[in-house]
Design a protein that fits this description.
With about 250 residues, the protein is α/β, with parallel strands linked by helices. It is about 35% helix and about 25% strand. The protein folds into 2 domains: about 160 residues, 3-Layer(aba) Sandwich (Rossmann fold); about 80 residues, no CATH class. Helix 3 packs across helix 4.
Amino acid sequence: MNDTILETAGMTREFSGFVAVDGVNLRVRTGTIHALIGPNGAGKTTCFNLLTKFLQPTRGTIRFKDRDITGLKPAQVARLGLVRSFQISAVFPHLTALENVRLALQRARGASFDFWRSDRALRVYDDRAHELLFDVGLSGYAETVVTQLPYGRKRALEIATTLALDPEMMLLDEPTAGMTHGDVDLIVQLIRRIRANRTILMVEHNLSVVEGLCDTITVLTRGKVLAEGDYASVSKNPEVVTAYLGSEHA
């Protein structure tokens, strides 16, 4: 039985002669939390953009659930169950938390955004929206406008809107970036709660988060895979220490 949900072969992306991602072979096992780490400019976010089809690879293939998705568009892979978050919060700032999640749930209606429908007609989504807000610890913020939410709560809301798409696999791009220690703990606990029946691939700079959450770690440097394994083995790899850990603690 194939336990791989996402796999790349020779995934490469060039920009005017600059190779940002260079022949990356990545294999993510179903039901795991897998991290991409590496110094700034290593190609981590470019990998995310390739996997979720915001960029097309120059060469190589990408397979999701044993289907070739290399030539698909972002909306198509999202419908297949591969959904991402972004480094910068992508929620609607002047809507409430509940309204943001409800908009994400409206995907079930197809291509219609329902802007001309009465608010009452969309209340059918409220129960599920409240459930998702509860799942991410935002029950008390349902009627709060996003601009009034603390930063960590905004990131939790973004995860709730991602969960509203019912993904089999979530790609989280630096979910704890710029957070206080308390907010980091909140997001770590949230990721632990939502991992049930899902696979998570994350880019993360906070190594204590990576150590505590991730089953497998892939280290990138200059667009190439430098090492892969669990945290104990990767953190002791001399090349990793030189390329990444050493620079972090220099």
